[in-house]
Specification:
Immunoglobulin-like, disordered N terminus, four-stranded antiparallel sheet, alpha+beta, five-stranded antiparallel sheet, 3 domains
């Protein structure tokens, strides 16, 4: 249930509280947000950063690499193809490491330039921008949308609303299909879905992500940023006085109020803010930046563009609302390099370097050796001692491979069993093998040996697995 908090009404003239209590739903906007269309540097920057990300999301599943999509998370085969690399379930630690690197990189960027990820590149922001664009094209700018919503239903209103929701649903459907295409294969998914050959689970997930895209970007919008996104709750803990963020110059702007053009407004005790409320009207999360830093602010810069356009019309200097640091507003100076930021970036560089090294040196063949733990730890065969092992070989390369199996150790061990195996891509083969050595050659009752698996097509593809050879006590 939504959390309800009482708000006591106060009479501004007498200072007495009203006898009535008004309840505010903290998980729902009191009024629908009608954003004003605005052009400016930060609006163009949001567009130029959002479009490449959107195109990447839509096009990557269609790019073929080695006969498969450039990015395919094949859950049924437990293979994750990312461009020219294939990852397996045992590579899950690499995925976890990549997510940790991304998180710390986000923390580092937050310390430096605030919540710009939310304002410029977050999928919620990018998709909301598309939905607002469709809304603007079908229903008009802010004042036209307000007027349209107040009008009684008519054929014209039905057509405008219907065209908007149709575009929203088309965008949401394309989004749902594309997202599921990363797990299914986009070309096969399109064929199966529209020829009604897809499974019920496939239709469910396509419709699920279509519905949630439509809901999040079309209806929830700012509520996702305010109440659902955990980043909004803890991002302020990373801020310091040198973090760059959207700031209102209170000393320059106050006392705010309307004035006639060409008058000496400072003589009347007014600041540069004409109280036009454009900064509020363009805000996608419906806050007033003039009230100070707020957790809901996503640092999108739209209020900066709106204020600069008003300052241009009034003939005032730009920058009444601007990206600045708290230290710069107070002292005029900002420290870019500071311990917290340097620590984050160094940590990211170290983790990224380690991740690249591990990824570059990972071997595309896996070998697992389990020694037979039956009643007898070893077997006597004449003057020889035998140990039995189960060897599991996993071909994780991007093609068919012929592997040879050998054993290495302190003595001339002999390997009995299938020492040459042919494996398809992704195939896992388990074979029993016997290792033999003369009893007189053993120096102790337990010695280390290594199983070596090597590709005949590419000798650089090899793996070693350590185990122990057990013999009689000396």
């Amino acid at each position: 249930m939504s959390e309800m908090i009482p708000a006591i009404e106060i009479d501004s003239t007498s200072g007495k509280t009203d006898s009535g209590v008004r309840y505010i739903d903290t998980y729902q906007s009191e009024n629908k947000i009608y954003t004003r269309r605005i052009e400016g540097f930060y609006q163009r920057l949001r567009r130029y950063t959002g479009i490449p990300l959107l195109l990447s999301f839509l096009l990557i599943p269609w790019i073929p690499i080695d006969g498969r999509p450039a990015m395919l998370f094949d859950l049924s085969e437990q293979k994750f193809h990312i461009f020219w690399m294939t990852f397996w379930p045992q590579d899950g630690i690499l995925l976890a490491g990549l997510l940790i690197i991304a998180a710390f990189l986000l923390f580092a960027v937050t310390v430096l330039v605030g919540r710009v990820w939310c304002g410029f590149t977050c999928p919620q922001t990018v998709w909301t921008m598309m939905f607002i664009w469709a809304e603007d094209k079908c229903e008009g700018d802010r004042n036209q949308r307000i007027k349209l919503d107040r009008q009684p239903w008519s054929l014209k209103k039905l057509l405008r609303k219907g065209s908007k929701h149709t575009i929203w649903l088309v965008i949401a459907l394309i989004t749902g299909l594309t997202f599921i295409g990363y797990f299914y294969g986009i070309q096969q998914l399109i064929v199966d879905v529209f020829t009604f050959h897809a499974s019920g689970e496939t239709y469910f997930w396509v419709l699920f992500f279509t519905a949630f895209t439509y809901l999040n970007a079309g209806w929830l919008r700012e509520q996702v940023c305010k109440y659902m996104c955990p980043y909004a709750r803890f991002q302020s803990a990373m801020y310091d006085k040198d973090t760059l963020l959207v700031t209102y110059d209170h000393a320059r702007g106050e006392q705010r109020g309307p004035r006639k053009s060409g008058t000496d407004y400072r003589a009347d005790g007014l600041g540069d803010c004409i109280d036009c409320s454009w900064c509020v009207q363009v805000c996608p999360v419906d806050i007033d930046i003039r009230d100070g830093l707020q957790y809901a602010c996503i640092d999108c810069g739209l209020c900066v563009d709106a204020c600069n356009s008003v300052m241009d019309k009034m003939g005032y200097e730009r920058g009444l609302i601007r990206f600045a640091t708290e230290a710069a507003m107070e002292t005029g100076q900002t420290r870019i390099f500071r311990p917290l930021m340097i620590g984050y970036f160094l940590l990211v560089l170290i983790m990224l370097g380690f991740f690249v090294y591990v990824t570059a040196t990972r071997t595309p063949v896996g070998v697992d050796v389990v020694r037979d733990r039956g009643v007898h730890l070893f077997r006597r065969v004449g003057t020889n001692i035998d140990n039995v092992y189960t060897v599991k070989i996993n071909n994780m390369s991007r093609g068919e491979q012929t592997y040879t199996v050998s054993v290495e150790g302190a003595h001339s061990y002999k390997l009995k069993g299938q020492t040459r195996v042919l494996l398809e891509e992704g195939e896992v083969l388990t074979v029993p093998m016997r290792v033999r050595v003369p009893q007189e050659a053993l120096a102790s009752s337990s010695e280390e040996i290594y199983f070596v698996v090597q590709s005949q097509q590419d000798p650089s593809i090899s793996a070693r697995q350590k185990t122990r050879f057990i013999g009689p006590k000396k």
